[in-house]
Amino acid sequence: MHSTFHASQHGPTLRQRLAANGFDAVTMLVLPAALFLVLLFIYPFAFGLVLSFEPKNTDASWLANYSRFFADPFLYETIAKTLWLSVPTTLINLFLAVPIAFRVRLMRNQRILTAILVLPITLGTVLVAEGLLNYLGPQGWLNRTLMTIGLIDQPVRLLHNYWGVFISLLLTGFPFTFLLTLSYVTGIDPALEQAAATLGAGAWQRFRHVYLPLLMPGFAITFCLSFVQAFSVFPSAVLLGAPAGPTRVISIAAYQAAFEEYDYSMASAIAMIMGFVQLAIVVAVLASRGLFYRGPASGAKG
């Protein structure tokens, strides 16, 4: 009684004042994550953005780096080359992941098969590139096998060009796309499909009118995350592609500006352009979700 009277006499404590302003114990747990975000994302991004407007040549305009990039075909064509790699591989991985995820969700040994399908993600891009060099090279297993059985007379060139990087992105990107797709597919209540089947809907009609509208928001997020991963391709483009030709992606241009020309301002400008291109694609995809489905995904379990 005495302590309560004493506290009321001196007003609310600091903890009570913080709680009244929304800073309770649960909110305070978010602070380490917010600090981590500021230190590892917001601050480097802001520093790079400011640095991109400070060209190496101090007498040049503050937009000199961006003007140089879009005036040089050897630089700005890297955007199209990167998109030409990342968009097709992301779409193919998504199209492959959907039917496989629908099949896997009905299997008893789902965990074992899922572990096998996601195995490439544990190897890393460099190890996958080394394996492809041994498998798809001129003297690799594939070419030797095809030549032995007489299907080809000379080795098929699948490395140090567009296709080497393309195959690598498929292998390394599929596990990530598949796991995301499987989580969305298994999250839809099977009773909805059963009800549609009871009403006479075929397999394609059930997928088109029941599953697809509910899965489109998830597909959009899966596409965005997989696309960002593929757009940042670097090791595969160097080890399996032609870094000075068809696989000179924008990350290679940023690397060369930073560590070959030692022009960190130009490298920051290329990185900013790279980020804004990704942001434009992501915003366009997320904005298009409303064309397929509006409202909450009420068909999801839980």
From TrEMBL:
A Pfam family per the record: BPD_transp_1
Compartments where found: Cell membrane
Gene Ontology cellular-component terms listed: plasma membrane
Residue ranges annotated for the ABC transmembrane type-1 domain, each copy included: 79-285
Alphabetically ordered keywords of this record: Cell membrane, Membrane, Transmembrane, Transmembrane helix, Transport
Top-rank taxon: Bacteria
Keyword 4Fe-4S: no
Transmembrane segments: 25-46, 83-102, 114-137, 162-185, 210-231, 269-292
Family as reported in the entry's similarity comment: Belongs to the binding-protein-dependent transport system permease family. CysTW subfamily.
Protein name according to UniProt: Sugar ABC transporter permease
UniProt source species: Microvirga brassicacearum
Taxonomy of the source species: Bacteria, Pseudomonadati, Pseudomonadota, Alphaproteobacteria, Hyphomicrobiales
